[in-house]
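Notebook entry, structure prediction.
Reason for the run: the old model in the group folder had no record of what sequence produced it. Starting over properly, with the input documented here first.
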Amino acid sequence: MSTFAVGDEDFLLDGRPVRLLSGALHYFRVHEDQWDHRLEMLRAMGLNCVETYVPWNLYEPEPGRYGDVAALGRFLDAVERAGMWAIVRPGPYICAEWENGGLPHWVTGRLGRRVRTDDAEFLDLVGGWFRTLLPQVVARQIDRGGPVIMVQVENEYGSYGSDQGYLRRLADLLLDCGVGVPLFTSDGPEDHMLTGGSVPGVLATANFGSGAREAFAALRRHQPSGPLMCMEFWCGWFDHWGTEHSVRDADDAAATLREILECGASVNLYMAHGGTNFAGWAGANRDGALHEGELRPTVTSYDYDAPVDEAGLPTEKYWRFREVLAAFADGPLPEVPGPPRRIAAPAAGALAEWAPLGEVLEVLGDEESDTPVPPTFEELGVDRGVVRYRLEIPGPRQPYPLSVTGLRDRAVVCVDGVRAGVLTTEDAVLPEPVAGPAVVELWVESLGRVNYGPRQGEPKGITGGVRHERQYVHGVRARGLRLDAFEAGAVGKVPFRPAPGGAAPGLYRAVVDVTEPGDAALSLPGGSRGFVWVNGFCLGRYWDVGPQGSLFVPGPVLREGDNEVWVLELEGGAGARVELA
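New structure, fully documented this time:
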C-alpha cells in the first residue's frame, strides 16, 4: 500500500516528491474494448496518470434508477493494469462539453437555479448519487492498493457561482462517503474565478491553454504554498456544428507544455484523447463574452485536436509532446503501441427500407400528453431526442403568421401533413401565413443542453407557446421520441417499407456486409440531420452543416458479415446509401 499527499511544495508519494504527468481520457467517450489501447498510448507518450470526469446524467436517467455505475470501477482497474495513477472528477457538475454539464435533466428541470447551490433538496439528490458512485472510487484509492490519488470538488465553480457553503458541503460529503485521498478544485487563473471556486484547506489548481507563468502567479496570490498544477492544459479545442474545425499548432502546444513543466508544475493534458460523444450526449454552449448569446451545439466527435486522435492514432502533437515529456520521465518511455485494427475494405449498403416519423413515433414513442400549453422536454421526461407537438388552429379564419415563443432548439413544421418550414430559436416564424382550420405538427429537437455558463439548465422544447397572429393556440398534444427507445426488439416492430425517392424524414434501415471488422468512418451522402445506429449502438448525431463529415465507428461495434444500420433522418432525406471507409 502507498500514500499520496499534498506537501508544502510538491505532491508526495510515500513521503517523496513526485510530479504528475497526467492526461484526460473520458472512459465514457471510448468503447470499453478500446480502453487498454488508449491507456497504453498515453503511457507511451510519457504520462504517469490519467484523469476522467463522471457524468451523473449518464447513470441516473430517472430518479433512483441507476445504470452501469460499475463501468467507472472497470476503467480504474484498466488504469491500474496500465501502471498509471488516476484522478477522478465526479462533479456533480462536470462541463466537459457534455449534455447539461452532466447534471440530469430531471434535476435541473425540477430545481432550476437552485442547482449548484447550498440548497437542501439539490444536496440531497447529490448525496444519493455520490453514495451510489463513490464506492467504485473509494475501493480503488491508492492507500487500498488502487490507482486513485485525487478527487475533485465540483468543477470550475468560480466560472459560475460564489456559494462557499455549497463547496464546503460537497467537500464534506466526499469525505463522509469515504474519500481519503487529497481533494482539489480547478478554476481559470483569474482572481474572481479562484476566489469563487476555492475551498479553504483544499488544493486549488488552474486551467489554461497558454501563459503558464502568469497563470501560476495568479494561483500563488490565492494559494501561497502547495504544489502547482495545471489541471486542464487546453492543448486543443472542440467544434460546434456550422463552424470551422479547431486546430492548434503542435509546436505551439508543445512549447506551452514545456513552459508548464519548467515552472516545476504538474500537468493534466486536456484532452490527451477525446473520443466521441456517442448516443447524442454532446452538449452546447451560448456564444458571446457572457455566454448568453446564440446556441452553439457541439459536434459528435470529441477529437479535440488531441495528441491521440478520435480513432486512437498518434498525431504530430503526440510526437512533439512525447519529446517534451521524455525529458521529465523516470527512465525510458514505453514503445508506442500499434494502431487498432481498421476495416479491411470499404463497404456500403442501400438505405432501402423506411418508415415515416409518425409511424416510428407510434411504435417507439412515449405516451401522449394533452395539456393547454406545450410541455417542455423536462416535463415530458425526455433527455435526448425529439418531441412532436400537435395542435389545431380553429376556423374559419384568414391566414395569419404562425410563430413559436421560447423555441429550443429546432422545429420541423407540417401544416395539414405538408412540410411548411424549419423554425429555430432565432427565426421562429413560419415563412408563409397559415389559415384556419388547420392541424399543425412541430417536430422539435434538442440540439444539446447548455453545459457551461449562466444559461446551463435551461429547459428544452417549446418553453413558451405557439401563436397564430398574437393569439396563443391552446390545447396541445405532445409525445416524446427518446433516443434510448431505439433498441433491436423495439425497432423490429416498426413497419418498414421500400424507401421513397427524394426528401422524406423518417427511420431508414440498411444492411452492410463487412468482410473484416475494424474501426471505420461512416458517411451518409445526401443526409441532412439526424442520428445513426450500427448494430444497435448509437454513433451520435450527423448534420450536413459540418465541420464533421463522418461518424467514427469503433471496431468492436462491427461484426463479420451483415451489419444493420438505422438512420433517423429528421429534416430532409437520408440519401440513398450508407458508406463505411
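Summary: The CA atoms of residues 211 and 402 lie 51 Å apart.
The old model has been moved to the deprecated folder.
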